[in-house]
Amino acid sequence: MLRYENIEFLNLLYGLIPMVLLMIYYRNWKSKALDYFGKQLSKHGLITTFSKGRENTKFAILILCITSLIIGISNPQIGTKMEEVKREGVDLMIALDLSNSMLAEDIKPNRLERARQAISRLIDKLEGDRIGLIVFAGDAYVQLPITTDYSAAKLFLSTVNTDIIPSQGTAIGKAISLSMCCFDMENGQNKAIIIITDGENHEDDAMEQTKLASEKGVFVHTLGMGLSKGGPIPVYNKYGNNTGYRKDKEGNTIISKLNEQMLQDIASAGKGTYVRANNTQAGLSALFAEINKMEKKEIGSMIFTDYKDRFQLFLSIALFLLIFDLVLLSRKNN
Fold it and tell me: Within this chain, do residues 186 and 107 fall inside the same structural domain, yes or no?
């Protein structure tokens, strides 16, 4: 099994994207600048030692070197020994709403980001519990199967956004049904589902699915993201800049409001608790207190208990590439 001791450093890999784009821009600018001084034929005659192939090779080596360094400081580790470990806990599925209305900023910085922060803090508090993640909008998908790997849970959580689900809506019923499919109903663990949503544009059989879950002994809690006054839904371009707010067919700005009554009804039917988030607290602390009241039963699971560091391999690769880059000239040999 592979894991990363410092998995948060892998986010630095996203920084390679602007580096590549900047290099492409620089190449285009350089080519146009040369064209300004002479035609293509005269350029090659004047710059006889220039090698575009070597320049591209050196840039590729630089990208690979930085990639190896980032992976190295993240310290990949390989599991080498498995043992059965007894633990006490509950099975918990979190269903996170990714509809566009979760981008409303009545809760700062916005509903979705506040929900992600709250889930991350919840994961930090877990001990022995298993956690899984469902994302939903017009449909529902398993983002992370139920696991005790909290580092993986945080990594998957960091990747969720409103763009990963194409169909809009608030399919709470599908999210509950899919959460139930993720549970191992044979293991005897107490189980709970936390629905995190603003409840807007609710469109399926959420109450029926909640009752079915409750009949099987699964608690259904709800966390309402949003304020009673609501807020407009921002629209972003591909560069992440706010270009305005969503409007209806008449051209009026849409105000997204929390469907509190529906979420209260779901929590009541699921024998769970409803909490509304606001700008001072996200609400998961109250729900975590409720989860801690549940009886935690002992269960054995096979996990890796001994890991070997593999950062040396990637740092060695980075060092070799760095030396190779220094030796390789960007111009042709005379």
Answer: yes
Domain assignment present for 305: no
User: What is the rounded CA–CA span in Å between residue 146 and residue 227?
Assistant: 31
Per-residue DSSP letter, 277: -
Q: Are residues 148 and 40 in the same domain?
A: no
Nearest alpha-carbon partner for 210 in 171, 141, 267: 267
Q: For the chain, what is the domain count?
A: 2
Tokens, residue 117 = 């922060």
Q: What is the pLDDT of residues 134-191, one digit of tens each?
A: 999 989 999 999 988 888 899 899 989 998 988 888 899 999 999 999 998 888 789 9
Residue 109, preceding peptide bond in cis (omega within 30° of 0): yes
Same domain, 136 and 112: yes
Q: Would you tell me how many other CB atoms lie within 10 Å of the CB of residue 221?
A: 27
Please tell me whether the overall predicted TM-score, pTM, comes out greater than 0.85 for this model: no
The pair phi, psi for residue 222, each rounded to 5°, is: -130, 140
User: Which amino acid type is present at position 109?
Assistant: P
Q: Is 70 helix (H, G, I), strand (E, B) or coil?
A: helix
Owning domain of residue 316:
2-75+310-327
